[in-house]
Amino acid sequence: MVADSSTSQRFCFGRRPSAQTITLTLANGPKPSRTTRRFPLFEDVTDPRERRLAIIKLHAEGWTPTSIASYLGTSRRTVHTILNRWIEEQFAGLPNKSSRPHQPAMKTTLRAMHEVKKMQIHPELGEYRVSAALEQLGIKLSPRTCGRILALNRQLYHL
């Protein structure tokens, strides 16, 4: 009885067991009941929603992002990105989203558009000449961009 209580007390002190103890326990213990994977590898899942859901399920069970990444065969950055997206958006973050910017980048300013409109009074000025004239004013726009502004002005002001 004394040996049993002293043995149980040794395990209650919060110390980690040695590597030899773990090896011995695993060798003598029962075989794992599950021999198949619960989730396929990340790259084998075709539905992006299911990919993200697998990461979220594993994280909800207490898996660390590092262990999730190694189990699913993906990067930790991917796991962290998906978990952060889940925190922000919940179920709305599961489907794919477009990577297109919400607001397209514009090189033109109102000053540049106004200068092009002033130059558009002369019909002989095309996109190349307008581009060259704008460069003399210190505004650098490609001829193609100037052509788009000219077309927009023709449409808006019926020039």
Biggest beta sheet attributes: none
* Rounded average pLDDT: 80
Beta-strand content bin: under 5%
Uncertain runs are 1-9
SS field, number of helical segments: 8
**End-to-end C-alpha gap:** 103 Å
CATH topology of the domain at 42-93: Arc Repressor Mutant, subunit A
Radius of gyration: 33 Å
Q: What order do the helices and strands follow?
A: HHHHHHHH
**Number of E strands:** 0
CATH architectural name of the domain at 42-93: Orthogonal Bundle
User: How much helix is in the residues?
Assistant: 55-70%
Task: State the name of the first-level CATH class of the domain at 42-93.
Answer: Mainly Alpha
Secondary-structure-based class equals: mainly alpha
Shape, principal axes of CA atoms: rod-shaped
Structure description:
This protein is mainly alpha-helical and 159 residues long. Among the domains are: 42-93, Arc Repressor Mutant, subunit A (Orthogonal Bundle); 110-157. The chain has helices at residues 2-10, 19-28, 48-60, 65-72, 76-89, 110-119, 127-136, 143-157. Helix 4 crosses helix 5 (76-89) and helix 7 (127-136) crosses helix 8 (143-157). The longest helix is centred in the C-terminal third of the chain and has 15 residues, at 143-157. It is rod-shaped and about 95 Å long. Residues 1-9 have low confidence and may be disordered.
